Amino acid sequence: MQLDPTEMTSVIHRLRRAQGQIGGVLKLVESGADCEDVVTQLAAASKALDRAGFAIIASGLEQCLARGDEAAGVDRAKLQKLFLSLA
Known about the structure:
Blueprint (H helix, E strand, L loop, with lengths): L8 H22 L4 H33 L1 H4 L3 H11 L1
Helix pairs in contact: 1-2, 2-4
Protein backbone atom coordinates (compact mmCIF):
# COMPACT_ATOMS: atom_id res chain seq x y z
CA MET A 1 0.00 0.00 0.00
CA GLN A 2 1.43 3.31 -1.09
CA LEU A 3 0.57 6.48 0.82
CA ASP A 4 -1.02 9.27 -1.15
CA PRO A 5 0.59 12.51 0.11
CA THR A 6 -2.58 14.48 -0.65
CA GLU A 7 -4.55 12.19 1.70
CA MET A 8 -1.89 12.42 4.40
CA THR A 9 -2.20 16.15 5.17
CA SER A 10 -3.72 15.57 8.62
CA VAL A 11 -1.12 12.88 9.36
CA ILE A 12 1.67 15.25 8.40
CA HIS A 13 0.23 17.90 10.73
CA ARG A 14 0.05 15.37 13.59
CA LEU A 15 3.63 14.29 13.01
CA ARG A 16 4.87 17.89 12.95
CA ARG A 17 2.98 18.54 16.20
CA ALA A 18 4.58 15.45 17.75
CA GLN A 19 7.98 16.59 16.52
CA GLY A 20 7.48 19.92 18.30
CA GLN A 21 6.31 18.18 21.45
CA ILE A 22 9.35 15.92 21.49
CA GLY A 23 11.58 18.98 21.09
CA GLY A 24 9.74 20.50 24.04
CA VAL A 25 10.31 17.34 26.09
CA LEU A 26 14.03 17.49 25.36
CA LYS A 27 14.18 21.12 26.51
CA LEU A 28 12.26 20.26 29.68
CA VAL A 29 14.60 17.39 30.52
CA GLU A 30 17.71 19.46 29.74
CA SER A 31 16.49 22.28 31.97
CA GLY A 32 15.66 19.96 34.85
CA ALA A 33 11.90 20.55 34.69
CA ASP A 34 9.38 18.94 36.97
CA CYS A 35 8.78 15.23 36.31
CA GLU A 36 5.02 15.75 35.90
CA ASP A 37 5.53 18.33 33.15
CA VAL A 38 7.94 16.06 31.28
CA VAL A 39 5.66 13.02 31.47
CA THR A 40 2.61 15.08 30.43
CA GLN A 41 4.41 16.30 27.31
CA LEU A 42 5.74 12.83 26.57
CA ALA A 43 2.22 11.40 26.80
CA ALA A 44 0.94 14.07 24.41
CA ALA A 45 3.69 13.28 21.89
CA SER A 46 3.04 9.56 22.19
CA LYS A 47 -0.69 10.06 21.62
CA ALA A 48 -0.01 12.23 18.54
CA LEU A 49 2.24 9.52 17.09
CA ASP A 50 -0.33 6.81 17.80
CA ARG A 51 -3.08 8.82 16.13
CA ALA A 52 -0.90 9.40 13.09
CA GLY A 53 -0.26 5.65 12.84
CA PHE A 54 -3.95 4.81 13.15
CA ALA A 55 -4.82 7.43 10.52
CA ILE A 56 -2.36 5.81 8.11
CA ILE A 57 -3.87 2.38 8.75
CA ALA A 58 -7.38 3.80 8.34
CA SER A 59 -6.34 5.16 4.96
CA GLY A 60 -5.24 1.66 3.95
CA LEU A 61 -8.58 0.24 5.06
CA GLU A 62 -10.44 2.88 3.06
CA GLN A 63 -8.40 2.04 -0.04
CA CYS A 64 -9.13 -1.64 0.53
CA LEU A 65 -12.88 -1.04 0.83
CA ALA A 66 -13.06 1.37 -2.10
CA ARG A 67 -10.94 -0.55 -4.60
CA GLY A 68 -10.61 -4.07 -3.29
CA ASP A 69 -7.55 -5.58 -1.66
CA GLU A 70 -5.49 -6.34 -4.73
CA ALA A 71 -6.32 -3.14 -6.63
CA ALA A 72 -5.44 -1.06 -3.56
CA GLY A 73 -2.20 -2.97 -3.07
CA VAL A 74 -3.29 -3.94 0.44
CA ASP A 75 -2.30 -7.15 2.17
CA ARG A 76 -4.92 -7.65 4.91
CA ALA A 77 -2.61 -9.73 7.11
CA LYS A 78 0.06 -7.05 6.90
CA LEU A 79 -2.47 -4.32 7.65
CA GLN A 80 -3.74 -6.25 10.67
CA LYS A 81 -0.16 -6.73 11.92
CA LEU A 82 0.50 -2.99 11.55
CA PHE A 83 -2.70 -2.18 13.43
CA LEU A 84 -1.81 -4.51 16.27
CA SER A 85 1.70 -3.08 16.47
CA LEU A 86 0.11 0.23 17.53
CA ALA A 87 -2.31 -1.31 20.03
